[in-house]
What we know:
This protein has one domain (about 5-65). It is built from three helices and no strands. Helix content is about 80%, strand content about 0%. It is elongated, with a radius of gyration of 20 Å.
Amino acid sequence: MPLSELTEQAIAVLCKEFGIVNTIRFLNQYEQGTGDYTVERETRFKDLTLEEYLATLQALRKNRSAL
């Protein structure tokens, strides 16, 4: 199913279940971002090694489970 058709069907379901006003309220909370994430990611993480990344990820997971 093309994404445009999926989007159209999803909005129709939302309108049917929640009404037009609440569908608009729901959709308005999302906005398209700006910038180029690929370029930003490459710039931000260009000097990060895989080992550093994995260590950071493990630390975050450990801190998260401690909550």
